Amino acid sequence: MNKQNLWFLTLFGLILVLGVYYITMPNDFLEKANKIVETKSEKATVEEVKEESPLVAMRVSLEEERAEKMEVLQQKLTSEKLTTEEKNNAYEELKYLNEVQGKEESFEKKIKKEYDLDCFTKIENNDISIICVSNKHDVTLANNIMRLIQSDYENKMNISVKFQKK
Questions:
Q1: Is 53 left (phi over 0), alpha (psi -120 to 50) or beta?
Q2: Beta strand 127-133 with 158-164: parallel, antiparallel or unpaired?
Q3: Residue 166 has what DSSP assignment?
Q4: Which of 50, 60, 57, 159 is nearest to 103 (CA)?
Q5: Contact 145, 132 (CB under 8 A)
Q6: pLDDT (tens digit, 9 = 90+) per residue, 29-84?
Q7: Element containing residue 68 per DSSP (H, E)
Q8: Coil, helix or strand for 8?
Q9: Does the pTM exceed 0.70?
Q10: What is the separation, in whole angstroms, between the first and last Cα of the chain?
Q11: 112: Cα within 13 Å, side-chain hemisphere
């Protein structure tokens, strides 16, 4: 067994133990943690972002939608009425939402780096929607973007690319 495998197993074991601890920890502790987070978020100031880009409205809408889903899932985690299995499912869904959000951001960065385009990405199951802000609506560019995104997946994904004028 080499060092890399040993590190992997050690970190995997740590993540597994923390996951089990999180699911089985007392609900009153989670409720207190939730209240602390809520009070901190209420105190945080909201800065207005003034951008001409139509992508901002789409991002804000998606973030609000996801924030509502995450709040419901966090309430499920702190609920005393739900079983451990239901809490585990809520935890897995929260983890999935975070992964999707990370992938969306990475795709936007890739497209920005490769093609110098501002874009908005939304992933829902096997459907990936990409909206790029560009004056040029090019089929070849759309195909290249689709190939770039598909390269991250083994299975065939339904990728749609739309262009929106600045």
A1: beta
A2: parallel
A3: -
A4: 159
A5: yes
A6: 656 666 666 665 555 444 444 444 677 888 888 888 988 888 888 888 888 888 88
A7: helix 55-78
A8: helix
A9: no
A10: 55
A11: 10
- 3-class state of residue 134 by DSSP: coil
DSSP E strands in 37-156: the ranges are 118-124, 127-133
Half-sphere exposure of 69 (CA within 13 A, CB side): 16
Other beta carbons within 10 Å of 93: 15
Nearest to 122 by CA among 135, 141, 110, 108: 108
DSSP line for 69-89? HHHHHHHHHH-SSS-HHHHHH
Helix (H, G, I), strand (E, B) or coil at 163: strand
Place of tokens 């105190």: 43
pLDDT in tens, 82-95: 888 888 888 888 88
